[in-house]
Specification:
The structure holds two protein chains of two kinds.
Chain A lengths: L18 H10 L66 E2 L14 E2 L2 E3 L5 E13 L2 E8 L2 E2 L3 E5 L3 E8 L8 E3 L23 E7 L4 E6 L4 H4 L6 E6 L11 E10 L1 E2 L2 E2 L2 E2 L14 E4 L5 E7 L1 E9 L6 E5 L4 E5 L4 E8 L2 E3 L4 E8 L3 E13 L4 E18 L5 H5 L5 H8 L11 E9 L4 H9 L14 H6 L5 E7 L10 E5 L2 E9 L9 E5 L3 E7 L2 E2 L8 E4 L4 E8 L3 E7 L2 H5 L3 E7 L3
Parallel strand pairs in A: 2-6, 3-7, 4-8, 7-12, 13-19, 18-26, 27-30, 29-37
Antiparallel strand pairs in A: 1-16, 4-5, 8-10, 9-11, 11-12, 13-17, 14-15, 19-24, 20-23, 20-25, 21-22, 21-24, 25-26, 27-28, 30-35, 31-34, 31-36, 32-33, 32-35, 36-37
Chain B lengths: L2 H16 L17 E6 L7 E8 L16 E8 L13 E7 L6 E6 L5 E6 L5 E7 L14 E7 L22
The chains are: A mainly beta, B mainly beta.
Chain lengths: 594, 178
């Protein structure tokens, strides 16, 4: 029953406090409560959770099935105790529990992702439906495209156009966003902007044109915090007609990273009416690579493997290591880099992609790990966190084709540089738009606000873990408003609609406010276009590549150059799913050239 | 040292003097900047001041991390008010910048300070202290593991402001009553 905190709404929950008393307490602490953090008089919400405790009782089914269910507090990490005063709190609104009321055993079992080779003009049918997955002995009701987790791996030649017939068989409206693909606006999949959400039982036909070689992914653009987290995502690898586009490798491996938040009773419920975990996003405690907790790859000594990496997590950024094997960074979202370079580890944030070649020279078994310096907010300390995502076994037998020389050669990609050369005249142009990233928090229980104030003295540029899961869990999109603000006009979020002419090249400066109530790093994604990161904190980027998503750490200033070449009204947003649900999205329009 | 960093350093020195501690203003949270360290003089260097600006070390990923996940910072120092000739400090021949961890168990020589008061180095610790000392060249070669001269300026990294909740008055008694 550990971690279950339900139905205790009788005392101490969102009770009205006297503002003066709060000020006295804060003054004693040497702090001043911000106006935005004032406790609101909110009546206890007793509309949910009443039977939640039953879910963990003997005889109740494992997994997230069950005739009833309520919110469940996420498991607290061993060294991070629950904050005093948190025992009776839970998110506002009803929980969403996938498969609640269903016989999970009756759901079809999910299968591993299967590659599908498509050519120009081909049609792919994708249907989203509920499946049954068993991971580490626990059974969960989850979602999948075509029953596959992740969805089918699409392999398609550059410049191909395919038709995708999507049918929505899940219990929520949905859509498919083709992340990073510069396709026609009406097929972008941004529900509410480029199309209506596809209702349960509904269909939508996408024409997906792939103009750029590289690695892309697809996922819903409706309640990503739920639908994407439960498995609705897949990759598209777009191959160049140039056989030497990449250096030779002995194998290719497409890896999608994801994390699920579970306890012994199943997946921690989601917010039904509004996303929960909106302060930091939902950090999982069950790490999955391609949907599996024990990814394994077997190679020969001296093999070079080209990895195609995607972070499909709601909120987690990773620091990937391949057991110390040397890594050559080749490409990112929409293109190769101007220059290949060796790196010792790969930092990847939600929605980002990297293509990297790794040489395995030493026989043995090596761990694919995520290594970060996590924060224990309670203790005010860092601690090393090592998450083993999988293993790579290197056999003593030598590779059948030694590409060591090519691996050691760092190529200059002249085609990339030539393409970028057309934009260099814009590098020093004045900033066209300045975008501020910040947050407004109102109405959270005062106990949380107080602890957050205590916690405000320092924020890591990027949150590598959830160091305050109890407080994060309770925060919903009803109380937390993540903001994109046009710093020139003061407009916010979807009131912003920048206009460009097709062919414009715009310099956008993004500032991540370090003085907000709870600053966080944000992976900012622009739909339908590509951009260059010109400078980070005023330091020019020496090795450019075309991107669609850039991590903007706390307190930093990033200059990007947007190639506004694809007409339509598009979305830009933070790709932490809960931040998107909590308002952090805006529009921009590329008007077609006459 | 780049001009923009010098200007930023100057501004940060002014800001550090004008706003030495956390306070609230304009309804937003006030806290020490996460990218600068105010260097406070010791009793041996009254009148001196300085700042250490932290920038992300170059990385294709934007964030530069060591394999075990430590953030890598470039540290850009700018110091004013020290005697032009360090010889006044027990015959020292150079001002040297260092970084060390809070328990002082390990240290790293960031490098000598230039005559214009600038210095630079790299740090990849979670919490750290930046200090400037007066060293005799022979006593603090480039490979020296620790300083041996007089400490003149010191400042803690913004991350050291992160403190234990339990030490806070709000937690006395274990369960706040509202």
């Amino acid at each position: 029953m550990a971690g279950t905190r339900n139905g205790e709404t009788g005392t101490g929950v969102r009770v009205t406090i006297a503002w003066g008393r709060a000020m006295v307490i804060a003054a004693l602490a040497g702090l001043t409560l911000p106006a935005t953090a004032r406790a609101q008089a909110t009546p206890p919400d007793t509309s949910h959770g009443g039977m939640a405790g039953m879910a963990g009782m003997p005889g109740m089914p494992a997994g997230n099935a069950g005739p009833t269910g309520g919110h469940r507090m996420p498991p607290m990490p061993a060294d991070i105790p629950m904050m005093p005063g948190m025992e009776s709190l839970q998110p506002q609104g009803a929980p969403y529990i996938p498969g609640a009321g269903m016989d999970v055993a009756s759901l079809p079992a999910g299968t591993a992702s299967t590659p599908v080779e498509l050519k120009d003009g081909d049609t792919l049918t994708l249907d989203a439906r509920m499946i049954r997955r068993t991971i580490k002995g626990a059974t969960y009701a989850m979602y999948a495209f075509n029953g596959q987790y992740p969805g089918p791996l699409i392999r398609v030649p550059q410049n191909a156009t395919i038709t995708v017939r999507f049918t929505n068989h899940i219990d929520l409206p949905s859509s498919i966003h083709w992340h990073g693909v510069r396709l026609a606006n009406k097929f972008d999949g941004s529900a509410g902007l480029t199309q209506d959400a596809v209702p349960p039982g509904g269909t939508f036909v996408y024409q997906v044109h792939f103009p750029d070689a590289g690695l892309y992914w697809y996922h819903p653009h409706v309640r990503e915090d739920i639908e994407q987290n439960l498995g609705l995502f897949g990759n598209a690898v777009v191959t160049s007609p140039d056989p030497h586009y990449y250096s030779p490798a002995n194998a290719e491996a497409v890896l999608i990273l994801d994390d699920l938040l579970v306890d012994k009773q199943g997946i921690i419920p989601y917010g039904k009416d509004a996303a929960d975990f909106t302060i930091m996003g939902r950090f999982g405690n069950l790490f999955l690579v391609n949907g599996e907790p024990n990814y394994h790859l077997a190679v020969h000594r001296g093999d070079i493997v080209r990895f195609f990496l995607t972070d499909a997590s709601n909120a987690r950024s990773y620091n990937l290591n391949f057991g110390g094997a040397p890594i050559k960074l080749v490409a990112t979202d929409l293109s190769r880099y101007e220059h290949e370079q060796m790196v010792s580890n790969i930092v990847i944030s939600p929605a980002q992609r990297y293509i990297a070649e790794v040489r395995f020279d030493t026989p043995g078994t090596f761990a694919l790990t995520n290594r970060v310096q996590a924060v224990n907010n309670y203790a005010g300390e860092y601690f090393p966190e090592v998450d083993t995502l999988g293993t790579i076994t290197v056999s003593p037998s030598p590779t059948t084709a030694d590409h060591g020389h090519e691996f050691a050669t760092l190529r200059a990609n002249t085609a990339v540089t030539s393409d970028i050369d057309r934009y260099r005249k814009y590098f020093d142009k004045p900033v066209d738009h300045e975008l501020g990233l910040t947050v407004n928090i109102q109405g959270l229980p005062n106990s949380i606000v107080s602890f957050m104030i205590v916690d405000t003295m320092y924020f890591s540029p990027v949150e590598w873990n959830d160091g305050m899961p109890d407080m994060n869990w309770v925060s919903t999109a009803k109380e937390v408003h993540w903001i994109m603000r046009d710093l020139a006009t003061g407009k916010q979020d979807m009131d912003i609609n920048w206009h460009f002419k097709q062919g414009d090249v715009a310099k956008i400066r993004i500032r991540n406010d370090a003085k907000s109530m709870h600053p966080m790093g944000h992976p900012i994604h622009f739909h339908g276009q590509r951009f260059l990161v010109l400078a980070r904190d005023g330091v020019p980027n020496p090795n450019l590549a075309w991107q669609d998503t850039e991590l903007v750490p706390v307190g930093s200033v990033e200059d990007i150059l947007l190639d506004a070449s694809n007409p339509g009204t598009w979305m830009a947003h933070c790709h932490i799913a809960e931040h998107l649900e909590a308002g952090m999205h805006m529009m921009f329009t590329v008007d077609p050239a006459p | 040292m780049r001009v923009d960093l010098l200007i930023a350093a100057g501004a940060a020195v002014v800001a550090a003097v004008a706003m030495p501690g956390p306070r609230a203003h304009d309804g937003r949270m006030s806290r020490p900047a996460i990218d600068s360290i105010a260097l406070e003089p010791t009793s041996d260097a009254r009148g001196a001041s300085g700042v250490a600006l932290l920038t992300r070390s170059q990385s294709p990923f934007g964030m530069s991390l060591t394999p075990d996940g430590h953030l890598r910072y470039d540290v850009h120092l700018h110091v004013t008010g020290l005697p032009a000739d360090p010889h006044v400090y027990d015959g020292a021949t150079a001002y040297v910048a260092w970084a060390t961890v809070p328990d002082l168990s390990v240290a790293r020589r960031l490098g000598p300070m230039a005559p214009d008061g600038s210095g630079a180095g790299e740090v990849d610790w979670n919490k750290f202290i930046v200090i400037v000392t007066a060293e005799k060249t022979g006593a603090a070669p480039a490979a020296a593991p620790h300083w041996s001269g007089t400490i003149l300026l010191k400042g803690v990294s913004p991350s050291t402001w992160m403190q234990r909740y339990g030490s806070h008055i709000l937690n006395n008694g274990g369960n706040p009553q509202w």
